[in-house]
Each structure stands twice: as C-alpha cells, then as structure tokens.
Fold this protein.
Amino acid sequence: MKAVVLPMTRILKGTILGIMTLLTILLVGELRGQEVEARGQYVYVLQLAPRFQDAAAWTEMENAVAARHFDHLTQATKAGQVILAGRTNEPLDKTFGLVIFEADSETAARTFMESDPAVIAGLMTATLHPYEVALQRK
C-alpha cells in the first residue's frame, strides 16, 4: 500500500472548511427556535402649522428650522432608519410631507417623530401611523 502525501495547502484548506462547517452548524443550532424580530415600519405625515401656510409669514427663523428638519432626515436616512421622505408640490395650505421609517417599537417611532426639529419648533404638526411598504422600486 502506497501512502498518499497531500500538499500542506490542501490539508489546510480542508481543515478550515471543516471548522467553518462546524461553526455554522453550531450557530444555526443556537439560533433555532429564536425568532428574529424585524423592526416595524411607520410613517408620519407632516403638515405646516396654519400660521405658516402663507409664505409671507416665513422668516429666517422658519427657514433655519426647515433646514434643520432636512438635515435631521438626511442623517436618519444615511443611518438606515428613514426609507423615504418627501413632500407634495402644492401650495403651502395644501402641501403635506411623509416620512417612512423603521423603529423598534411604536414608542421609539413616536420619539423619532417628536424629535424632528420642525415638530419641536411648531413649524409643522405630525401624525404617526403604523405602516408597511408593500412595493418598492429597486
């Protein structure tokens, strides 16, 4: 009987593959039976407070608040929390905005909505709703 000598790299590859397989089996075994809870989706609808539905009522202060509002949503989008944010292109007395986002709970969603600089400043009012994205363009 002739002994077969495998090159060291082949043995090493086989050992690494075996270890990875074993670790995968152990990890799956630990996770089995545990449900991974997905983050909930929510939408808040923004409307300008009545006194700001006239463009003449806007001052540098309101413009600064709107800029902070946009920055806040930009950062939340970059962090992966906001799915979509935007507003309708209508006169100020008819326009509204939507922020579709993810949160761990309704309480966390409400806290996020209430931390919007436009809501804090009273420039906009906001209403929170549970939401579920059904279709999304890739």
Remarks:
- Strands lie at 40-48, 82-87, 97-103, 124-131.
- The helical segments are 8-31, 60-78, 106-114, 117-120.
